[in-house]
Amino acid sequence: MDLSGKILIAMPGMGDPRFEHSVIMVCAHSDDGAMGLIVNKPLPNPALPDLLEQLGITVTTEDPDTRSQPIMFGGPVETGRGFVLHSTEWDGGGPVMEVGTDLAVTATRDILEDIAAGRGPEHSILALGYAGWGPGQLEEEILANGWLIADGDAALALSEDHPNKWMNALGAMGIDPRTLSAEAGHA
User: Fold this and answer.
1) For residue 38, what are the β-bridge partners?
2) Dihedral (C-alpha) 120, 149, 4, 91: value to the nearest 10 degrees?
3) What's the pTM?
4) Contacts for 18-23 with beta carbons within 8 Å, 24 or more apart?
5) Is the domain defined by 7-179 classed in CATH 3.40.1740.10?
6) Per-residue model confidence (pLDDT) at position 187
7) Domain limits of the chain?
8) Pairing mode of beta strands 71-73, 124-133
9) CB within 8 Å of 14: residues ≥ 6 apart
């Protein structure tokens, strides 16, 4: 089972508070493990312009969305490392990892420079850190009723409605969260 490009939705009763009510875009999944970005947990600070300034990148765009864009808590692994989950029309010429058909991830400085100059992707989320799983670990968590799996949805992942993404992800699957159980069951 390859979950690359899928969305993970944290089940009620998630044992790890860092992942409670998380919506994660799975960027890569193989026999060696998995990597994803939490797309619904904005960090209280820094704001994007502050982070860019720390990196020596001057924000020249007047776009209010860029100037107010929050930075996401992408996950607990390598929290000092940044990733940009973005729409696929941007091509900065550097390494880009495709995530499904409508999304890509870039972790190089050039995308930040383009965003600061107003030449970046039409839609993007900057995340610090990532969620990572070792070989078989994610599959075990799914079997233990830790995650629901949904089809990848670029509009949901890149939506600015961060407080409601978890509910919206469940709603897109036709699931009322009040009907979910924290207990796993096996037939």
Assistant:
1) 24
2) -10
3) 0.91
4) 18/73, 18/75, 18/76, 19/131, 21/166, 22/131, 22/166, 23/156, 23/157, 23/165, 23/166, 23/169
5) yes
6) 47
7) 7-179
8) parallel
9) 20, 21, 22, 146
The upper half-sphere exposure of residue 145, i.e. CA atoms within 13 Å in the direction of its Cβ, equals: 9
- Distance separating alpha carbons of residues 100 and 137, to the nearest angstrom: 21
- Using one digit for the tens of pLDDT, what is the confidence trace for 68-105? 789 999 999 999 999 999 999 998 777 889 998 899 99
Q: pLDDT per residue over 100-150, tens digit each? A: 889 999 998 999 999 999 999 999 999 999 999 999 999 999 999 999 999
Tokens 């929050």 belong to which residue?
70
| Bond preceding residue 46 cis, omega within 30 of 0 | yes
Question: What is the distance between the terminal CA atoms of the chain, rounded to a whole angstrom?
Answer: 21
Q: Residues 33, 71: contact at Cβ < 8 Å?
A: no
